[in-house]
Amino acid sequence: MKILKSSFFRPRKCQHGNFELSPDKGREILQTFIDFESGLLVVSTIKGKEDSSKSGVQCEVKQYLINLQSLQILSSDDYKEYFDYGLKESYSLDGKLRLISQRIHDKVRNNDFFAEKLYDTEMGTLISSGESLAFTADRRENLLERHYSTLKLQKESQRKETEKLSLSDLESIHKAVLKKEVPIISFFDEFYCYKLIYTGKHFEILRYSINDRESESIPAKLSTFLNIEDFWKEITVDPNWFRTLSIDHQQSLQPFVLSREVIETFNSLKKEKELSYGQHEKIYAWEKVFIHPDLKAGEVKQFCSNCTKEVKYNPRYPKYICSICSSKDKYSPDRMLLEFYNTDLSGGLKIVYKDIHGNVLGEDDSKSEFLCLIDGKEFIVQEARFGGIVIQRK
Question: Which terminus of the chain has a lower count of CB atoms within 10 Å, N or C?
């Protein structure tokens, strides 16, 4: 790369001064920024799009450091004038944590990074370690600072979680402000639409014909209940109620008064019965109407489809298995030992076939999902939406 300086006859200018950056032939400037610590200009270049597409390999990035006063491109030997590469030791204010840090130059990439280790001084144990790029446009947090930032975020998250509502809290709050004659929920089957309302004294189900628009003004009073719990018992007498009835999201105007009844019903159903994916879809269509933004995490349950242990709620993967079951031996239908990985950082599914001794027999990354056996049961393995691997009961 060259620096083309400005002159009287050929004025030049870029965002960093009176000069232009001229990358080597076949390369383009990827990014430029001022290093926070040193004030040096950092320039990264990359092979042009045409060259990189022909090579079929990952583009090589070259980095340069430029002194803006002298407009000199620094060599790696010059870096020592600007940066300290010695081993550093520092402590937290209370002396309980010790940080060991060293700036290291990577000659291959012409880049610097920090290697850090954080120790508990009382126990002498390693808390965490990591590497981070040294050249940054903003102030870099060291491992000790990141540790405290993480603790702060965790405390804030815990504080917010304690302020969230249980299902009982949600029910009580919304019962206290229940409006008369306004639909609590609206649901429908093949022929009729139903609305649950509160009259001020009791609860009523009003029935409307879906096919007769005129009947909207003269609904049939179908049932009356002294309390909302009795209404819910009536609805759930039929074990297939959530498959035959669909909820109207837009017309369900006061649903949270029913959240505890609905969600607890589904929690029990998901734990006690093996449900199909279609049934899970029907459940989620109901469930999402009753999940309030301030509801505590864990109130809506989900269970491992292998051992029924409670797992984190994720309706996108309603039959995924827990980490313990995921770590068990996995076999192909013809009894070959299997392991699954992402093909690269962007995702994908790689299947590794092994013999009983753990020797690799082959790999396959041509499939989007694969059938495997765990504990003699069939499961489907696929790439998770945001990376990683998800295993679900077939």
Answer: C
Residue spans of the domains in the chain: they are 2-81, 87-162, 167-300, 323-393
Tokens 């139903």 sit at which residue?
Answer: 194
Cβ-count burial of 196 within 10 angstroms (0-12 exposed, 13-18 middle, 19+ buried)? Answer: buried
* pTM, 2 dp: 0.66
Cα(385)–Cα(316) distance, integer angstroms: 9
User: What gap in Å lies between CA 17 and CA 14, rounded to an integer?
Assistant: 6
On whether the CB atoms of residues 143 and 101 are closer than 8 A, the answer is: yes
Structural tokens at position 203 = 């609860």
Mean pLDDT of the region 273-289: 95
Let me know if 70 is exposed, middle or buried by CB neighbors in 10 A (0-12, 13-18, 19+).
exposed
Cβ–Cβ < 8 Å for 87, 100: yes
- Alpha helices for 10-142 (secondary structure H): 49-55
Cα gap 366→62, rounded to integer Å: 33
3-state secondary structure of 224: strand
How far is CA 137 from each of CA 17, 107, 111, rounded to the nearest angstrom? 17, 21, 14
Q: What pLDDT digit, counting tens, does each position of 164-219 carry? A: 999 999 999 999 999 999 999 999 998 899 999 999 999 999 999 877 554 456 77
DSSP lists the bridge partners of residue 370 as: 381
Asked if residue 13 lies in contact with residue 6, where contact means CB atoms within 8 angstroms, the answer is yes
CB 32 within 8 A of CB 23: no
